Amino acid sequence: MSAEAVVVRPRKVRRVAIPIAVLLVVVFALVGTLLRSTPTGVVFNLSDQIAMGVLGLLLASGVMLLTRPRLRADADGLEVRNIIGTQRIPWQLVQGVTFPDGAPWARVELPEDEYVPIMAVQATDGDHAVIAMRRLRELRRTVDA
């Protein structure tokens, strides 16, 4: 059965997280560069300056983790990649794909009242999320047919 694959990534969080990550790197690099001595007499070494730059990179990396979520769905099942971890779920296990009222993102309903959040389909994305859910449900109907 040839069903068109659905690939979804969040939009708004990417538009916010990328500039914030860049800003963090620039600010911490600038602070590290300007960090030499203070009026209180505290003297900072080269290692302190480097540590400030590394701290900026670490914080920026943490912010960039928010851009990692992705959903790939095809005739075989769903691949849900969230901030940490990726799960492959065959359609046979999927009891539903829902977006509960007030929830920040969609989820895959599994047997025994379990679920997997789909952080790639976020409420803040508005119409993008609605279109993604429609495409996902259409793919499921095509696979089930």
TrEMBL record:
The chain crosses the membrane at residues 16-35, 50-67. Keywords: Membrane, Transmembrane, Transmembrane helix. InterPro entries: CFP-6_PH. Pfam families: bPH_6. The keyword Transmembrane applies. Residues 68-138 form the Low molecular weight protein antigen 6 PH domain. This is PH domain-containing protein.
